Amino acid sequence: MNLKSIVNRHLVDSLEKLNLTVESFDLSSPKNPKFGDLSTNVALVLAKQVGKNPMEIAKDIEKAILIDNSIISEVNVTPPGFINFKISPSYYQSVVQQIINKDEHFYSGKVGKGKTANVEFVSANPTGPLSVGHGRQAVIGDTVASILQWHGYDVTREYYYNDGGKQMRTLATSVEGRYFQAIGKDIEWSDEFYQGDYIKDIANDILKEFGNKVKAGDKIFRKSAEERIFSNIRSTLENIGIKHDIFSNEKNFIKPANIEKTINALHQKDLTYIEDGATWFKTTSLGKEQDRVLIKSSGEPAYRLPDILYHCDKFERKYDLLIDIFGADHIDSYPDVVSALEALGYNTSSLRVLIHQFVTLTKGGEKVKMSTRKAEFVTLDELTNMVGKDVVRYFFIMRGMNTHLNFNIELAQDQSDNNPVYYLQYAHARICNIIRHGEQQGITFNKDFDSSLLIKDAEIGLLKQLNQFPNIMATALESLEPRTIANYLQSLATSFHKFYTECHVITEDNELSLSRLALVLATKNILSKGLDILGISSPERM
RNA sequence: GCCCCGGUAGCUCAGCUGGAUAGAGCAACAGCCUUCUAAGCUGUGGGCCACAGGUUCGAAUCCUGUCCGGGGUACCA
Predict the structure, then answer these.
(1) Please, what is the average pLDDT of chain A?
(2) Listed range (A17-21, A48-52, A324-328, A386-390) with the worst mean pLDDT
(3) Which of A11, A76, A277, A470 has the fewest CB atoms within 10 Å around its CB?
(4) Are A376 and A370 in contact (CB under 8 A)?
(5) Which nucleotide is at minimal CA–C1' distance from A165?
(6) How far apart are the C-alpha atoms of A419 and A489, rounded to whole Å?
(7) A508 CA to B2 C1' distance (Å)
């Protein structure tokens, strides 16, 4: 049971004694330590209801609270009517035992037990290497999935791609053009083609593998391009520790019968009409500015339709929770997809759409426009090679997903020495070093340590941070914002480094050494667990 | 035009489901290694939380408006 709910219970009990009822109030740790460890505004909230001075109410509640010395050591009231609780050190000291004894509370959540979740992310079509922009989505998606797993969800990481459209045809034509150039034919090269050198590489590979007799329009151009690019994408993702469980292709569910069924269903709700040969989705009747095309006059589905069908498919797979990670370019279209799904009778409350803002790249103070077709981008692989997986991952989640991430390329290269990720990893490496040092001195961990010896400020401070971990995970689940964890690990590392400077672990005092060793081990567990969720390694040495 | 995001220390940003004296890193300056890794720690300086109203006992946080910056906005996906 966590600290907050214990104190909360005491508080609610005393409110009952006083015949006071209140809908909601806040109980949280105040910024200023002089107000104790936990603080509540109940009295302030009640003041209006009861029509009394908040200070008086607070005093009444204070008197009514039963003090349980093993947990609450002191209660006091401060103006304008806050009730503050001081938690006794013995509670915090017990945290070490809980962590060392693998108390579940610190290692997993219950919310998702027995439930399934699907996280869809990246979902870039195989037209070129993944860019830095895709990288942000990849890391956010993977980390969100890990957060769900911590809470017990059975998570499927899914990658959706759609290779039926114009982009893929252009890709094939581009490869074909490069192929014929390579065998010396004079080909008219269009600006519309994909410009990157990887197109030439693919063409050269086709030349090597199939010789110079391949005819124009052969399926091999497109097939090779898709295969090679996809395997490249997979290895790019693998380089930053990401593996999808399912790659779903639109071909599996975009079948004429499916399309017809869906269009008919929407038509029955009077949500479609035909104009200029195209089938339109009447989004204006759902409050949007303009209607959107579902099927182009050419008969080809426009992108909203495959998205709708794909989501129907996911809903049919009966996940308890569906999460889509999209870039800001989807901000206009996803509400249409959701509306369509609702119109089709799906309960969209299990769907959460996370929109992240784009990464703006600057190079030499100039903005770099990112276009796959023009090959103007820094690839995710290039970035990973420059700064390493851990830094890439940390960089992408240390800022909130809905802020624009300004990525300065020079800085990223430069940063390798004073990057915040090293601060976290360094804390872990230091702990490992303490453990090694202890072993050399013949001091190793023993279950019979006495945690009541941990009384210095730096020790209690570290214990308080450790105690926060489950709360942080709960917050992360609610917000699905990986940054929450990154910020927490920063402050955990700060508490540890402070402890490290102020308290020697391996000392002549055997008892004390054992207690501190236990504290340090508990810190190691939580730190590496947190880093693990972020997909960042916990080095033993640095 | 419409939509989304942002405006907090010199720089990069935390804090934003309202709480008491607004935080961290970098940069500047001053200290700390004869005992577990100085990629660390301690201290100093630095702020009208863009602006103006509103709600509230209480606003960086919520609401409205204004200004500035970034991005999105096809019968491309």
Answers:
(1) 87
(2) A48-52
(3) A277
(4) yes
(5) B77
(6) 14
(7) 71
**How far apart, in whole angstroms, are the C-alpha atoms of residue A151 and residue A409?**
36
Count other Cβ atoms within 10 Å, centred on residue A415: 17
A449 three-state secondary structure: coil
**A415 beta carbon < 7 A from strand B?**
no
In the numeric block, the tokens 């945290």 are attached to A95
**Angstrom distance (rounded) from CA A435 to CA A444:** 7
| Sheet-wide strand order for A72-78 | A27-28, A38-40, A82-87, A72-78
Strand B within 7 A of A216 CB:
no
Structural element, H or E, at residue A73? strand A72-78
Do you find a cis peptide bond into A482, omega within 30 degrees of 0? no
Q: A535: closest CA among A431, A403, A434, A424?
A: A424
Asked if the Cβ of residue A541 lies within 7 A of any atom of strand B, the reply is yes
Nearest to A119 by CA among A85, A95, A143, A86: A143
Tokens in use for A279? 């089938």
Question: Which residues, in sequence order, are CB contacts of A438 under 8 Å at separation 6+?
Answer: A444, A505, A506, A513, A517
Q: Which nucleotide is nearest to A47 (CA to C1')?
A: B57
Q: What is the mean pLDDT of the segment spanning A481-489?
A: 92
Q: In what order do the strands lie in the sheet with A351-356?
A: A246-249, A154-161, A116-120, A321-327, A351-356
Q: What is the pLDDT of residue A170?
A: 87
The reply to whether A430 has its C-beta less than 7 Å from any atom of strand B is: yes
Instruction: Evaluate if the CB of A500 falls below 7 Å from strand B.
Output: yes
> What's the ipTM?
0.92
Q: How many residues are present in chain A? A: 542
pLDDT at res. A68: 73
pTM over the 0.95 mark: no
B71 C1' to A324 CA distance, Å: 20
Give the CA-to-C1' distance from A418 to B20 in angstroms: 35
What distance in Å separates the CA atoms of residue A158 and residue A406, rounded to the nearest whole number? 27
DSSP element (H, E) containing A513: helix A510-533
Strand B close to A167 by CB, under 7 A: yes
Question: CA-CA distance, A218 to A225, in Å (whole number)?
Answer: 12
Nucleotide nearest to A77 (CA to C1'): B20
Confirm if A352 and A338 have CB atoms less than 8 A apart: no
Looking at residues A59-64, what average pLDDT do you find? 87
Give me the CA A405–C1' B50 separation in Å, rounded.
20
- Please state whether strand B lies within 7 Å of residue A209 at its CB atom: no
If you measure CA to C1', which residue is closest to nucleotide B25? A420
Nearest residue to A146 via CA among A537, A499, A531, A540? A531
**Nearest nucleotide (C1') to alpha carbon of A517:** B36
CA–CA distance from A282 to each of A108, A141, A274, A298, A537 (Å)? 45, 32, 10, 19, 50
